Amino acid sequence: MSKKVVFIAFVVSLGGFLFGFDAGIISGVMSYAGPEFNLSDGQMGWVVSSPSFAAMIAMLISGRLSDIIGRKKILIAVAFLYAISALASAYASSYEMLYIARMIGGLAFGAALILAPTYIAEISSAENRGKLVSIQQLNIVLGFFAAFLSNYYFNKLNTSGNSFLTDENVWRWMLGVEFIPAILYFLFMFFVPKSPRWLCSKGKLQEAKVVLNKLYGEQLAKVEIESIEKNINESQKQEKVSIMELLKPSLRFILIVGLVLGILQQITGINAVYFYATSIFKQTGIGTDASFASGILLSLTTVFFTIIAIFLIDKMGRRPLLLVGIAGIAISLLVCAYGFNQATYQLTSNEIAQFENIEAGKLTAVANKVYDNDIDFKNDMKSALGNQVYAKNEGAILEAATNINATLVLIGILGFIACFAFSLGPVMWVMLSELFPNKYRGLAIGVIGFVNSFISWVVQQVFPWELSNFGNAMSFLIFGVIAVLGFFVLLKILPETKGKSLEQIELELVKN
C-alpha cells in the first residue's frame, strides 16, 4: 500500500477526528457553560444536539454539491467551518451565540462524515479500500480520546488554583482548542489531490491519470482508470432512482434490516453517554475531577475495541459481532440501571458546613434527610439553592451526598461502550454498504443515514430532560429494555454477509 495514499486517507479523515473531538469536548464544556448561562434542560439539550441537527441538513446536500464542484473543495470548506465554529464557540457571549456557533460545526461534520469515506474510496484500490476507509472510524474514536484528555487537563488546571483558568473561562478554552486541529486540517487539505473518479466524471481524464500515476505508478494507474471509466459508463446507463422505489416488495426485507440497524445504533443511547459522559459520571458521586478522568478511560475503551472490530469483522462475521455486541449492550445498560436504583442520597450537617460556595442556612431543611432516588434529592436541592447555584456545585453536592456502588455503574458504562465499539458502531455501516444492490445503494444509505442522525439528535436533545424527570435508573432502564428488544429482533432478521460477493448477497436477499 502506497504511503502517499495512506497519508491522503489520514488527512481527509481528520474530519472524522474533529467530529469525535467536538462530540467528546462538549461533555466537559456543559459542566461549566450550563451554569454560566443558567440553561434549562431543554436549552442544555439543544446546545449539545444542535450540531447533529445541522449535520442532517449537511448530509442531504453535501453529496450532491460535491458531485458538482468536487470533493476536495467541499472538504476544504468543511475544515474552514470547523475552525470558525471553534473560535465562535469559545467567544460565545450568550446561549444563542453558542448554539449557532456549534451548528456551524455541525454543518462541517455532517458533510465530512459523508464525503471523507467517499473520497477515500475513490482514491483506493479494491484490495486496500476496506482498510483505508476504516481510518475514518479510527480517527473518530481518536478524536473522542483527544477531547476527553484535553478536558481532563483543562479541568485539572482550573481546579489547581494556580492558573489563569476559572469556572467562567475554562469551558471557552476547552472549545477554542479545537481551532488547532481544524486549521491543520484546512492547511493539509491543500496537499490532497482532487478525486480521480470525480475528475473522470467531469471528462478530465488526463488530469485523473496524472493523479493516479502519482498515487500508484503507471501500471496500476492504467488498471484503475479503466475500472473507473467502465464504472462511470455503467452508472450513466442506469436510470435515476426515486425514494419510492426503496419501498418495492423486492427490497422490503433489506430495507427493514437497514432501518432496524440505523435506528438501534442510536436509540440505545450511545450519544447520550458520549455527549453527557462527564455529567453521567458525576451522578455516581465520584466528584468533578474523577468524572473528567473517567472520560479518558471511556474514550480509551472505545479506541481499543474499535481496533478489535477492524480485525474481527472479516473473520468472525457481521451477525455474530452484532448479536454478541447488542446482548452486551443490553446487559451493561441494565447493570447501570440497577446500580443507580440502589443509590441513596443524604447530606449531613457537617457535610453542608464544608461547602465553600453554598450558604449552609439554605440547606437546613434537607440536612440528614435520606432520599432513595435522585429525582427528589435534586428537586429539593434546586428548590433550596436555585438551578444555577446547584448546577455550579452539582459535582461537590453529589460527591458528598451519594451512597452508590460507583464501580458497578462504571463497569456498566464501560461495558456498554466496549460492546458498541465492536458491533453497532462500525459494523452497521459495513452492512449497509453490502445489503443494497448497486443501483439503490447510495440512496438507501443516505435515507438510513438521515434516520440514524435524526434519532441521534432526539436522544441528545431529550436526555437532560429525561434525567431530570425520570431519574438516572429509569433512563438507563429504558435504553436497556430497548436493547433487549433489539437483540431479539436482530436474532430473527439479521442475515450474514461475510465472505459473500455483493452479487451473491443480492441474489439471496433481494426478492424477485
**DSSP E strands, number:** 3
Oligomeric organization of the protein chains = single chain
Mean pLDDT: 86
Please, what is the CATH homologous superfamily of the largest domain?
MFS general substrate transporter like domains
- Which H/E pattern describes the elements? HHHHHHHHHHHHHHHHEHEHHHEHHHH
- Overall, the morphology is globular
CATH class of the largest domain, please? Answer: Mainly Alpha
Number of helices: 24
Largest sheet data: 3 strands, antiparallel
Report the structural category: mainly alpha
Count of discrete domains: 3
The fraction of residues assigned to DSSP E strands is: under 5%
Radius of gyration: 24 Å
Tell me which CATH architecture of the largest domain applies here: Up-down Bundle
User: Strand sequence of the main sheet, in spatial order?
Assistant: 2-1-3
Q: Poorly predicted ranges (pLDDT <50, ≥5 residues)?
A: none
Distance N terminus to C terminus?
Answer: 40 Å
GO cellular component, one term: membrane
Keywords: Membrane, Transmembrane, Transmembrane helix, Transport
Pfam families: Sugar_tr (PF00083)
Subcellular location: Membrane
Secondary structure layout:
Elements: H1 3-12, H2 14-36, H3 41-69, H4 71-90, H5 95-123, H6 129-160, H7 170-176, H8 179-188, H9 196-201, H10 205-216, H11 218-237, H12 252-267, H13 270-275, H14 277-282, H15 288-312, H16 318-341, E1 344-346, H17 349-353, E2 370-371, H18 374-385, H19 387-392, H20 394-401, E3 402-403, H21 406-421, H22 424-435, H23 438-493, H24 502-509
Antiparallel strand pairs: 1-2, 1-3
